[in-house]
Amino acid sequence: VATRTGMEVSLAVSEAVKLANADVIAAYPITPQTHIVEHLAELVAQGELDAEYIPVESEHSALSACLGSSAAGARTFTATAGQGLELMHEVVYVASAMRLPIVMAVANRAVSSPLSVWGDHSDVMAVRDTGWIQIFVENGQEAIDQTICAFRMGEDRRVLLPVMVHLDGFHLSHMVEPMLFPDQAEVDAFLPPINYPLPLDPAKPVSMGDFAPPIVFTEAKWAQEINLEKSKEVILEVWHKFGERFGRNYKPVESYRCDDCDTLLMTMGSYSETAMMAIDKVREAGKKVGLLHLRLWRPFPYEELRQLAGKAKTIIVLDRAISMGMGGPVASEVRSALYPLEKKPKIVSFIGGLGGRDISPVDFETIINRGMEIAKTGSQREFEIFGVRE
Amino acid sequence: MSKTSTIDTKERFSPGHRACIGCGEALAVRMACKVLGDNVIIVNATGCMEIVSSQMPFTSWTVPWIHTLFENTAAVASGIEAGLKVLTRKGIRDMSKTKVVAMAGDGGTSDIGLQALSGALERGHNLLYICFDNEAYMNTGIQRSSATPYGATTTTSPAGKTSVGQFAWKKNLPAIAAAHDIPYVATASPSHYKDLMNKVKKGMDVKGPAYIQILSPCPTGWRCATDNAVDIGRQAVQCGMFPLFEIDKGNYKISYNPENLKPVADYLKAQGRFRHLSDIEIKKIQDKVDHDWARLKTLASLGRTN
To answer: What's the Cα-to-Cα distance from B174 to each of A37, A262, A354, B71, B210, rounded to whole Å?
Structure first.
């Protein structure tokens, strides 16, 4: 029977990695991710998790060591945030292109300069195009669940891709929440041992990571893209199987009170729970507003988004990052995903919650009201930055 | 193979690779592979040997081989070593006899990969790291690295009216590796092939990190005759520009220890990269070599302290 325990979410992620029986953890400390790798070090030191823990000298080496252990056929985990994700940037591409099913938790953090250890989604947006499966979690329970699911998704023979589990730095990583921890036996039944095809092994020598001349490169990239697109079927299957066993169901895009709505608010990560409170409030005031919560960031859930958002007249998207010189990256992708629809909803783009700035339920109400106003009257700007002092 | 008195005829770095004519590095890799045997996993940095051996869909490697990036070779090797350890411990696959061998050039080792190397050595992974030192970034077309010897002209340290060529002394990487208190460090040259193979064997047998730096003469970049790589390497050893030694558990031992070193001038004048050097500059290099040689002899004279 699963046990309900109050715990800091970072530590819960580590416990999930333990439940997944990871073989190798390569890690470097960085706020606000540090508690995850600290707790893993403790679990290994206490003999509660039989794994090799490599305390590397940088994030670049953290993910590089993960390439090695994963290529050797070991179940591999790391975690990072912000600058750490930036430092490992080139390695991030290699992990997916070489089809290594590493799982990485990212406690989303702003990117310098100015230095900020606090949360936003700037770090994620920089690795948007790197070929990883990317999942945004909403709360502590989901952080546990998706960490376990991530290993099964990535290691599936039809997928063989690395998976990022995004949890908001501080706003989620440092919260103490009550969570259900599944039984080890249940996790073992859900998550089979890793069986990586053709690992580095003298018994059957392979060359991995050859260089590609122009005559091969395009095909290599195309194969990778097709593979990531097709991974969605497996992602859905894994979530379905997880739901059957554990009773918690996950979808690429969640909707909250959307059925009769002209206007939808759209968020990612832990802000969605706060936004729900605002949705309840504005609906009490008679406004038909619902919430969309984007969980699966890559592969992008075009189909699900079109189904849920296609009937709305206005979608207000809150981004927690700026694509400098362009605007809100999520808003831009949502707009592009919905453009082929005959009746195109208006996309109103807000950017907020940068560098750990809080957005309260009342703030969300303001965003909704202002968004509805912009949808009616239009705006001189491509996007608005919520709450900025100009 | 327990001794290298009879050299293994099996090739693990196969003919058909795309190295330049007369490549001393390909020769050094081939020699090393004869000692590494089949029960290895090779981790290769981006660089000449990676490029010449791995063009899709071909490979020159008969042993498991992985390349990922330029500067992370030691980190990838660390991960593999940890992976093998835990897979063995958990009874998933017995990899206890498999050695992880990292290979990188001098740029990938002394410049961009130095941090990852230092991390791997400090953590004490059971792996052999071989730096194939051709004394510049040859793969990108002869740019200086911190392992390029003083006075060598390269495309980023060109000799000119206001430039002597490479302006700094060659970084002492074996000493840096040894400063990590690792069990085994050595230098080698394909000109002294038995010495080279015996050192690789020691590096394989030692438990913990071993670092071997092998001089890899590059006729293309050194501007010397393409049938001259072995001889030019021998000259580098004989004049003290690239002394052969071991640092076994911190104890220095000179492997090639002549009564008198040959003058550096002969070695320098045989290569286009040094041809511009004035007598004054050659004297400066001679003085530095003499000083370093005396220092090496002093270190070796300390005898075994453990």
So the answer is: 33, 70, 47, 18, 10
Pairing state between β A296-298 and A52-55: unpaired
Q: Which residues contact A315 (CB under 8 A, 6 or more apart)?
A: A263, A264, A265, A266, A292, A309, A334, A338, A345, A346, A347, A348
Strands B184-188 and B210-215: parallel
Least Cα distance to A352 among A337, A362, A341 occurs for: A362
- Distance, first Cα to last Cα, chain B: 29
- What is the spatial distance between Cα A48 and Cα A209, in angstroms, rounded to a whole number? 35
Q: Which residues in chain B have Cβ-Cβ distances shorter than 8 Å to A211?
A: 50-51, 54-56, 67
Q: Which two tokens stand for residue A259?
A: 């059925």
pLDDT at A38 over 70: yes
Structure tokens belonging to residue B161: 């009216």
Report strand pairing: A3-8 vs A176-181. Answer: antiparallel
- Distance in angstroms (rounded) separating the CA atoms of residues A233 and A231: 5
Q: Is the pLDDT of residue A1 over 70?
A: no
Nearest by CB: A60 against B72, B80, B84: B72
pLDDT tens digits for A228-243? 999 999 999 999 999 9
Judge: A70–B55 Cβ closer than 8 Å, yes or no. no
Indicate if the pLDDT at residue A169 is higher than 70.
Answer: yes
Residue B192 near residue B237 (C-beta atoms within 8 A): yes
Q: Is B84 at the interface with chain A, CB within 8 A?
A: yes
| φ and ψ at residue A211, rounded to 5 degrees | -90, 155
Contact B67, B61 (CB under 8 A): no
Give every CB contact of residue A8 below 8 A, 6+ residues apart in sequence: A35, A173, A174, A175, A176
pLDDT at B1: 45
Question: Whose structure tokens read 């590095």?
Answer: B25
Q: How far is CA A25 from CA A77, A199, A220, in A?
A: 5, 18, 29
Location of structure tokens 């690789």: B200
Contacts of B78 in chain A (CB under 8 A): 26, 54, 56, 61, 65, 68
CB B117 within 8 A of CB B174: no
3-state SS track over B229-272: HHHHHHHHHHCCCCCCEEEECCEEEECCCCCCCCCHHHHHHCCH
Say what percent of chain A tops pLDDT 70.
100
Whether A246 contacts A141, CB under 8 Å? no
**Residue A216, min C-alpha distance to chain B (Å):** 7
Q: Which residue of B has its CA nearest to A66?
A: B79
Contacts of A381 (CB under 8 A, 6+ apart): none
Count Cβ atoms within 10 A of the Cβ of residue A206 and give its class: 0-12 exposed, 13-18 middle, 19 or more buried: middle
Bridge partners of residue B35, in order along the sequence: none
Write the CA distances from A91 to A38, A99, A197, integer angstroms: 23, 12, 21
ipTM confidence score? 0.97
A76 close to A26: Cβ distance less than 8 angstroms: yes
Give me the pLDDT at residue A85, please: 98
Alpha-carbon gap: A285 to the closest alpha carbon of chain B (Å): 57
pLDDT tens per residue, range A267-286: 999 999 999 999 999 999 99
Contact call for A208 and B57, based on CB within 8 A: no
Over range A191-213, report the average pLDDT: 97
Residues 6 or more apart from A350 whose CB is under 8 A from it? A316, A317, A318, A319, A328, A331, A367, A370, A371, A383, A384, A385, A386
State how far the Cα of A212 lies from the Cα of A221, in Å rounded to an integer.
Answer: 10
Q: What phi and psi, each to the nearest 5 degrees, are found at residue B132? A: -90, 105
